[in-house]
Amino acid sequence: MIRFPALALAVLTCIQLQAQRIAPILIETKNACMVLTVSGNQRVLQSYFGKKIDRPSIEKISGGREAYLTAGMENQFEPAIRMVHNDGNPSLDLRYVSHNTRQDGKVITTDILMKDPVYPVEVTLHYTTWPEEDVFSCQAIIRHQEKKPVMLTQYASGMLHFNADQYWLTQFHGDWAREVNMVEEPLTHGIKSLESKLGTRTNFYQTQFYFLSLNRPSDENTGETIAGTLNWTGNFQFTFEVDQRNALRVRSGINPYASEYYLAPNETFTTPEMVFTWSGQGKGQASRNLHRWARNYAVLNGKEDRMVLLNNWEATYTKFDENRLVELFDEGKKLGVDLFLLDDGWFGNNHPRNDDKTGLGDWEPNKTKLPHGIGYLVEESEKRGLHFGIWLEPEMVNPKSDLYKAHPDWILKLPNREENYGRNQLVLDLTNPRVQDFVFKTVDDLLTQNPRLAYIKWDCNRSMTNAYSPFLKEKQSHLYIEYTRSLYKVLERIRTKYPKLPIMLCAGGGGRADYGAMKYFTEFWPSDNTDGLERVFIQWGYSYFFPANTISAHVTSMGKNQTLKFRTDVAMMGRLGYDIRTNNFTPQDIEFTNNAIKTYKRISPVIQQGDQFRLVSPYEEDRAVLMYVNEQKTSSILFQYFTTPRRKNIFTNVRLQGLDPGKTYRIREINLYPGTKSNNPENDKQYTGEYLMSIGLNIAPRGFAVTSNVFEIIAE
Ligand code: DGJ
To answer: Does pTM surpass 0.85?
Structure first.
């Protein structure tokens, strides 16, 4: 009875809409476009996505598959959304109502409003494009005006549809100290899912990115490929479903695992953005698109310089005191770094943080180790010309802490079962606003008391297990979502007060690296594995999706058989830093490091802001070669890492990329160890860009040691 008028109105609206054919909705960038059409029954279809096409072709497009597939009606495949209404009806029918497009500077957004003709439910698909960077995003905004909450069991950010002969999926899996291992495989019929259920530190096993290549595997320079991710620092899910007709549906969103969401009337559920870029020229172009987009829009201070830092973690672990730190400041000064970063172990008094068993949550300086507090450390480091930064793990607590005793109800744990620890710690219940205040205050107090603190490393060393929120009570299925939203609330507060402060995102190695978080962070920690050789692969893996200025890369004493030069050259391909004792450095090591830091500061604008070209993959050859080129194509840096010296190795010329064919460039090997000269046949030669990109450089590594070279290629 009650619904009749609404239904009648909806039917009328549908009839009106049927009368007027809606022109194709175009979501486009410089080189790619998506065409959405409205079918006769008012469904919004994705009719095309790929290379940019002309207007006459767009006008001819018809058919396609629903852009945001619903459940419970005729769709028999994985839905983008599934809703159970408060009368128990599990169906949803989304019909086009209106759309509008806006431009804000260089960014274009299109909102497409859809409504259910029977239930008062509406979904807006919100598309954003960054045309210059060829990057797209999509998110769904879900609302309803039913009397009571509806239950959402699926709430994807969006879907992409493809029709190709074959699909090749590239994924990156990992674990602690062995992050981002790349695998490319064909998709077969059925569903492949890349996902995380870890709650926090969610990238631990599966990196939050994929490449989807159409018809054949893509390489660096050829092939049609889509690079995708989700801006969400929580459980994520990408499903790839190949149907009986070989059509592919890609669904991206929050992982709905154990997360039925009860959406109250008039509450808005906004999904995170699924971000994707299209490339007709392989993975290299897709990466460069994302790098540019990240620097311009998605990463905090993306266009600004990064500091070279000395961290004390691998040098001291938690075993240090004030005097030892001051010695390390001296070492930092000797090396020529900009900042000293004090890692874990500085806090806790009743429960001193002398190992990883105690103290998390008690964020006051340990009086035995640091009798003069943090202010003294800031002063002493500044006296030596260094800024000072500090480590925090504000989302966590050790049971052996004052915080645990004072607030047992601030912790995620099952009320009637034994506590389950990861690294001897538990996760705080960030869904509780009082915990959010505590986390904000932890950061705020440190920065208020020490206004010259110049850097924070924000760590997160465990994922969720046995998770139960005392605050959420009967709404436990909201925990994973609310946790991430709460984390963003805290980060938002921090950024409102401290908009520019550099903060490194870290999660027990590379457990958190996503663009949902990166708008609050300047860089991330890719792995606790800092062995130079391993880092060639790990940093290579991250480079598919992140620009060099976000990838923290430290020279450490791991990889002892590698030279200091090798480890330094590897760290230079990201945001260079150090985490090493220098007491056994020879005078030449110090001289080398001084010069390396000076060199890095000179060339880092090219590395951090330039276009990256991966030239030779360490997955395919026993070396890795990559280069960065500035926007004017006048300056370029090329790195070569000889990863596996074998007698069988035969290396051909490396063809460069991204240069100006008409310019003449001089090749100079730089970052040489004191007392050594370049014996590379190409050193000091001059070539045109045309020559370098067509014939290439003969820089074949020789010998039987793991070695590396850095070349500067400058237009004359
Ligand atoms: C894990 C991080 O990845 C390390 O760099 C270090 O900060 C430790 N946590 C400290 O506990």
So the answer is: yes
